[in-house]
From TrEMBL:
Signal peptide: none annotated. Residues 181-192, 461-475 have a biased composition (Basic and acidic residues). Belongs to the FHIP family. This is FHF complex subunit HOOK-interacting protein C-terminal domain-containing protein. Residues 592-657 form the FHF complex subunit HOOK-interacting protein C-terminal domain. It comes from Astyanax mexicanus (Blind cave fish).
């Protein structure tokens, strides 16, 4: 009643611009008088009028801003800034006097920063107490103020995201803390006892300026990191969201402080390691591969239901969820911060935790760790983390590979050897791992595994074209079951795609010549196609005389996959045509590289291996064949290259398989059929289909270049 009467009287006796300010001062003085006049400081703040006065002060500030021009500071805000009200509230909140005052202060700061539109943080009398209040957050786990703390920290993060330069105000020089108890107490005594007319004592408040950030404390990050350890999952998610905002700020000083002066790298890697180490030592690779993806922050689960599906599901989802957070955080981070965070994951998780698991001799352990690594690679999308993951697996070398140097990177050597492991399960899983790597947008994968061995084209015989022996595989220029490429109606559906490049390493139009090679050395595409189609004799073909089983069934898939690969490889500095032969060092000894050597060795045993192994080997080779690199295309898809003595290509490996065991089997069939011969027959089926797939890939690549060439 008294306040209502007073407001009415003030409305008559004060100038029109004063009522809000007078009311604002009244509420503030009511709070300060409480501390001067009250001796009982044990009663909770909710039993006082302080919450109501703070609410009224905030409403007045919002009303004042709404009545003024945008950006104009009113007298109430001037009063709050000049009289260091936020400093005083911070001191009261720190003392938590009366009990619960810290909650009230945090809530007031949060709503003030969130609801006032004009920029407040540049003012020294705002960002300084805000910085001090930040340090109070996360001090005690499961504190009753956690909810208010995280809301306050997140609103500060949001404000910094809006104006990233302001982050410099929150990088505090180490060893230079003005937050001494004596200074705070003195500030409180001065504010509570000084007479106040409600008018500014000096010109309007000035903005502070950021200090030298060398060796800075980043308390905002530290407080958020503390809150990520809260037992309340909602608090943890909010803290992670706040960190996501901070790492994305473009300020270099903040990025440096984030990775060098906080425990962010430690948090990410230690938690990743802890989740990984909580996984069972043995897990079914199929469970690892098929468990549903969980985006971080949405990790809702039921322990009983998860355990009923398979043992370790809950632990696996928790690991994948945190991996997703690390990946997204690095993806959003400023460039130098992203590189530092990804490097920390490589050193403190991949090398320290995963590498020993991958290098172990237990087959069960190898299988589980390889399946987990495959899932990790599949899930990683951030460029920096993907690069560090690849460096961890393959090393950073890009120079020519030598037979004596294949064990230089022990993990790379071990993984490639696992592609030809005695355990078929380990071989298949490791081949899947490499297939997954080949599909990631990382140029280093291909350079390290295959391209560095093909750079000099020294797989070719060092002889002039006219001295090379003619090949005999055609009758009257065409095989009897040759396919007319130009008249197949399916080809009309493979319309030109703007995503496809226009390379020079394939001929630009279907050639009419019946010679084996064109004058410039490029082989006619229809002869290449038919060379692959005719590799398997008709007598051995499972699909012979069966409609709808030709290579054209692979064309659509090949077209789609090639288009996808072209989209990935577009920004890489790959040459559009082969390195001129006169510039190649053809005299240097050729080594196909450890990876291709193992693949070719397995391909050479395709008639002796289990069906599933063969499918995976051919799948990896088809992925390599699809890549739009001229040397890889030449080496894997041109049957007519003149190989140097002792060298082999994909085509020559398949021919050798045909000329040995398969022909022997056709002319001297066993009776009765044994299990070994069932394996052989399954191998023939895979080989036949693989040849069709290679023929389709060769044609699609030719068609793409012809369609996009001028």
């Amino acid at each position: 009643m008294f306040r209502l009467f007073r407001s009415v009287i003030d409305g008559f006796i004060l100038a029109p611009s004063l009522p809000l300010q007078e009311d604002f001062v009244y509420h503030w003085k009511a709070i300060t008088h409480y501390y001067i006049e009250t001796s009982d400081d044990k009663a909770p703040v909710t039993d006082t009028n302080i919450p109501s006065h703070l609410e009224q002060m905030l409403d007045i500030l919002i009303q004042e801003e709404g009545e003024r021009e945008s950006g104009e500071t009113g007298p109430c805000m001037e009063y709050l800034l000049h009289h260091k009200i936020l400093e005083t509230l911070y001191t009261l909140g720190k003392a938590d006097c009366p009990p619960g005052m810290k909650q009230m202060v945090l809530s007031f700061y949060t709503r003030l920063l969130g609801r006032i539109r004009q920029p407040l943080l540049p003012h020294i009398n705002v960002h300084r107490p805000v910085q001090k209040l930040i340090r109070l957050c996360g001090e005690v786990l499961a504190a009753p103020t956690e909810n208010e703390e995280i809301q306050f920290l997140c609103i500060v993060c949001a404000k910094l995201k809006q104006d990233p330069y302001l982050v410099n105000f929150f990088l505090e020089n180490k060893g230079k803390r003005a937050d001494s108890k004596e200074a705070a107490a003195e500030g409180l005594r001065e504010d509570l006892s000084s007479p106040d007319t409600g008018q500014p004592q000096s010109p309007g408040p000035g903005a502070g300026s950021p200090s030298n950030n060398s060796g800075s404390n980043y308390n905002l990050v530290s407080s958020l990191l503390n809150l990520t350890k809260s037992p309340d999952g909602r608090i943890v998610v909010k803290a992670c969201e706040g960190l996501m905002l901070l790492v994305s700020l473009p300020e270099a000083a903040a990025a440096k402080s984030l990775t060098e002066s906080t425990e962010l790298c430690q948090l990410l890697t230690e938690r990743l390691a802890a989740f990984y180490q909580a996984l069972p030592q043995s897990m079914d690779p199929l469970d690892i591969e098929t468990v549903e993806s969980v985006n971080w922050g949405l990790d809702v689960y039921n322990l009983k239901e998860d355990a009923a599906v398979f043992t370790g599901k809950r632990a696996l989802i928790s690991f994948l969820s945190w991996l997703d957070y690390c990946d997204q955080l690095i993806k959003e981070a400023q460039k130098t911060a992203a590189a530092a965070l990804a490097r920390a994951v490589r050193e403190r998780f991949f090398v320290a935790v995963m590498e020993p698991q991958l290098m172990q001799t237990s087959e069960v352990g190898i299988l589980t760790s390889t399946a987990l690594l495959n899932r990790i690679i599949r899930q990683v999308t951030s460029e920096a983390l993907l690069q560090e993951t690849v460096y961890f697996l393959l090393g950073e070398e890009v120079g020519p590979e030598t037979p004596t140097g294949i064990s230089q990177i022990p993990l790379r050597h071990r993984l490639i050897e696992h592609c030809d492991h005695l355990s078929d399960e380990i071989s298949i899983m490791t081949l899947r791992l490499f297939e997954q790597l080949l599909q990631k947008p990382c140029q280093h994968v291909l350079q390290n595994l295959v391209l560095r061995s093909l750079d000099e084209r020294n797989y070719m015989e060092n002889k002039p074209q006219e001295e090379r022996e003619e090949r005999e595989h055609m009758e009257n220029g065409q095989p009897h079951d040759a396919v007319d490429l130009e008249e197949d109606p399916l080809f009309s559906d493979l319309s030109p795609d703007p995503k496809l490049p226009s390379p020079d390493w394939l001929s630009c139009s279907p050639p009419q010549s019946t010679e084996h090679s064109k004058p410039d050395g490029k082989t006619e595409v229809h002869k290449i196609v038919n060379s692959f189609l005719c590799l398997v004799p008709d007598e051995a073909k499972s699909s012979y005389q069966v409609e709808g089983t030709g290579y054209d069934t692979y064309l659509r898939d090949a077209h789609r996959q090639f288009r996808d690969y072209c989209g990935i490889c577009q920004r890489w500095d790959w040459r559009s045509s082969p390195k001129p032969i006169e510039k190649c060092n053809l005299d240097s000894p050729f080594f196909e590289g450890h990876f291709l050597k193992v693949l070719f060795d397995r391909m050479g045993r395709i008639l002796d291996q289990p069906y599933d192994v063969n499918l995976q080997v051919t799948s990896v080779l088809s992925k390599l064949s699809l890549l739009p690199h001229p040397h890889l295309h030449e080496y894997l898809l041109d049957p007519y290259i003149n190989l140097a003595p002792g060298c082999r290509s994909l085509f020559s490996v398949i021919v050798r398989v045909m000329c040995t065991k398969l022909l022997n089997f056709l002319f001297f069939p066993p009776y009765p059929i044994s299990i070994d011969h069932v394996t052989l027959l399954e191998g023939v089926i895979v080989l036949e289909e693989f040849c069709k797939e290679l023929a389709a890939i060769a044609f699609v690549k030719f068609h793409a270049s012809a369609s996009t060439s001028p």
